[in-house]
Every structure is written in structure tokens, then in C-alpha cells.
Amino acid sequence: MSSALTEQRSNRRTDLPTGFTASTTLATNLQRVLVDLIELHLQGKQAHWNVVGPNFRDLHLQLDEIVDQARDFSDTIAERMRALRAVPDGRSDIVAATTTLPQFPTGEQRTSEVVELVTARLAAAVATIREVHDEVDDEDPATADLLHTLIDALEKQSWMLSAENG
Fold first, then answer.
1. Tell me: the pLDDT tens digits for 150-163?
2. What is the H or E stretch that residue 71 is in?
3. Contact 77, 88 (CB under 8 A)
4. What distance lies between CA 101 and its chain's CA centroid?
5. For the segment 101-120, what is each residue's pLDDT rounded down to a tens digit?
6. Which helix (H) or strand (E) holds 95?
7. pLDDT digits (tens, 9 = 90+) for 51-89
8. What are the C-alpha distances in Å from 166 to residues 117, 121, 159?
9. 84 φ, ψ to 5°?
């Protein structure tokens, strides 16, 4: 019995792990996703405030769903970065300088145009996530699982939004 006890103790860690730390590549890839999600949130709000035309109310409310989801996802990615000891940067100048989303037009936008504009921005955000996915998965499959959730949800939002224009 003491032999089994000794064997069990030999499996105990003496060098306690400090946790996983993101490489520069992983941090950079997550930063790319973060800035696109922040920009999606901001552009979605711009669209929400300035949409006019047929089916205004439904689209106005649907845009808020997209905005809320983008904001929640940006928080998820930023907090994941911190958990991996990376430093997220969501400052407005960094977001504006590094996002892949096209600039959103100023002024009022007709409902049909907003559907096209926001659908294109959802596609751009998803494209960034897909571009970084394989490198993220190679280093950290747990974080890649988060990216899967984002892709699924944003593509669903895109489908539902694009159905507005038939």
C-alpha cells in the first residue's frame, strides 16, 4: 500500500504551471477580430439611429440586436485576450486605423440600403474571423471554439438581415 501511495505522490506537480500565454501572433489575430467587432457595434448604432423608410421599426430593433451581439462579442474577445495575458486595444483611433470594415456613410439611410450596408459589414467581420481562425486553432483550440461561436452567430444575423430585402 505504501508503494501505491508513493507512486501517487510522484504524479504530483512540483513546478506549478503559470497558465497559457498567447504568442504575439495569437494576440495580433485576436486584436484584428476585436477591432472589427467594436467597429461593427459602432456602425450598427449609426445605422440604427439614421435608418428611415419602410419597415423602419422592425429594422431599427433588429439593428439593436446586432449591436448588442457585437458589443458582447467584443467583450468576450477582449476578456479572452486578458485571460491569455495579451493586452486588447479598443481605443477609437486604433479601431478606426485597423478595422477591415468599410466606412459607414453619413446621414439618413433608407431601410433597403441599411440592410445592404450592415450585411456587408457583417460579412467583413466574419471574413476577418475566418482569416485568423486556422492560426488561432493551431495555437489555442479553446479560443478557436470562441471564434466558431462568433462566426455562427454573425452569419445568422447576416442571413436574417438580408432576408429583409428578399
1. 999 999 999 999 99
2. helix 56-83
3. yes
4. 13
5. 999 999 999 999 999 999 99
6. helix 92-98
7. 999 999 999 999 999 999 999 999 999 999 999 999 999
8. 15, 18, 10
9. -95, 15
